[in-house]
Specification:
- The protein is an all-alpha fold.
- The protein has 22 helices and two strands.
- Strands 1-2 form a two-stranded antiparallel ribbon.
- A hairpin with a 3-residue loop joins strand 1 and strand 2.
- The longest helix has 33 residues.
- The model has no long low-confidence stretch (mean pLDDT 84).
Amino acid sequence: MSATTVTAAPPRRLLTEERVATGLVGLLCLLLLLAIALPLWALLSKSFLDDQGRFVGLANYARYFATPVLVQSLLNSLFVATLATTIVIPLAFLYAYALTRSRMPAKGLFYALALLPIFAPSLLPALSLVYIFGNQGFLKDLLFGASIYGPIGIVMAQVFYCLPHATMILVAALGLADGRLYEAAKSLGTTRWRMFRTVTLPGAQYGLVSAAVVVFTLVITDFGIAKVIGGQFNVLATDAYKQVVGQQNFAMGAVVGMVLLVPAVLAFFVDRLLRRRQVALLSARAVPYAPQPERRRDLLLLGYCILVGGLVAAVLGVAVWASFIRYWPYNLSFTLANYAFAEFDPDGWQPYLNSLWVAGLTAAIGTPLVFVGAYLLEKTRAVPLGRALAQLLAMLPMAVPGMVLGLGYVFFFNAPWNPLGILYGTVAILALNCLAHFYTVAHITAVTALKQIDGEFEAVSASLQVPFWVTLRRVTVPICLPAILDIAVYLFVNALTTVSAVIFLYGPGTKLASIAIVHMDEAGAIAAAAAMATCIVATAIGVKLLHLLLDAVLFGRAQRWRAR
C-alpha cells in the first residue's frame, strides 16, 4: 500500500493588490463624504428645520421669499454678477486676443500682469478702490457725486478680481486654432471683420461661455468685496453672513446658502452641457496658427494691454502704497506703523502665521491625497462602483461656492451628535475646508497628467507582478512631478487668499489673515487691512516664484528626459 503525497496549497497573501486598492478607494470615498457630501446634506436638511430642530418643510423658504429685503439681495446679486460678467468678458477676450493673435512684444510680462489678482484676497481690490474713489479718495470726483460704496464699487472690484480667471480660459481657447482656416479665408479675399466673425468667434465660443460661467459664479458667490465696499447694497453672500453671525438665525442662513447654491449649480450645468457639444478644434492634419507681423494691429493691441495691465497693477499698487502711508490723505509720509498689527487687532501677526500654517497643511496633506486619489480612479480597476462615487464627489465642489460649503461645515461639524465636532474651530477643519473647496481643480489637474501616461506601464507592472504602489512611486510620481508641484502651489495660494470658505469656521486662536482684514476694515483700520493684504500678496507671489524656480530645476534635471 503506497503512501499518498498531499501537496499543501500556497498560503494566500493577506494584502493583495486588489484588496489594497479596494481599501484605498473606500477610504477616499469616506473622506470625500465627510469633507463634501455630508456637510452639504447638513446644510440642506437645516433649511427644512426651525430653530428648535423641528421639521417645518418649506416654511423657511416661504418666509425667505416673503421678505422683500432678502429677495432684493437675490436680485442685487444677479444684477452685479450679470453686469460684471458683461464687462469682464469683452475686456478679457481682447486681452487674450492680443496675447495669442498678435506679434506685440513682452507678451509674458502682460500675461503676468493680468494674473496678479489671483495672488490677492478678493478684499484687496475693494480696499484699493476705497483709497481711490472713497470719501477721501484722490479720484472721487470722477464718479460725479456717486458713491463707491454700493453696486458701482462691487462691480469695479469684481472686474479686477475676475479678469485673470477669464483671461486664462480665453488664452487657452484662442491658443487653439487651425492656421489652414485663416489661410483659406485670406486666399478667398475675406475681410478681416468677416474672418473674425466666421472663424475666430466660432472657434472660441465655448471658451467664451466657460469664461462667462466662471465669472458669473465668482461674482455671485464672493463675500469679501461686498463686505468691504458694498455699503447698504446687500447681496446673497453678505446676507448669509448676517443671518448666521449677526442674528444667529441658522435656519434662515441655511436657506440663504441654498439659494446661493442654485445660480452656481445652474451655471455649472450650463457649462457642462455646452462642453459636451464642443468639437475638437485641432485635427491631426491641422497647422498651428502663427500670427504675422502687422504694425498697426500690434501697436493698437500693445496699447490696450498697457492700459488694462497697467490698471490692474495700479489697483494692486495703490493698496500696497497705502499700507505704508501714515494717515491718508492728510499725512502721506512713509511709515511701517500699519504693519504693527497688534495695534489694530488683538491677535497681532498671529492670523498671518495661522494662514501660513493652514495653507501649508492644505498643500502638504492635500497634494498626496489628490494625486493618489486620482491615480486610484484613473489607473486601477478595483471597485467600479466605489470609483464612480469618488469621481462624482471629486467633481462636486466645482459647483459649490465656498461660503455654502462653509455653512455646511458649521451645521455638520458643530452638530451635538457628531464626534468630529472636536475639530470645529481648529486649524484642521480650516485646512479640510480649504482642501474640499479647491479639490476639483486639483483633481482635474492630476487626472489630466495621468491620462498622458500610457496604460502599458501598469500592464507591464502587472505582468511582472510588481504592486501598483511600487509603479506609482518609481514611475508615475517622477513623470508627474511638475503637475504635482502645480497642485501643491494651487492649494497653498488659494488656501492663503480665501475668505468666504472659512469665514464661519475659525476659533479664538485660529483667525486667518483674510478674516483679520475683514475685522480691521470693520474697525476702520483700512491701512492695517491693506498691510495685511499686502503680506498675503507678497507671500503668494513669493511661493509662485519659488514654484517657477523648482519647475526649472525639475525640467532641467529630473525631467531632462522630456527634452527632445
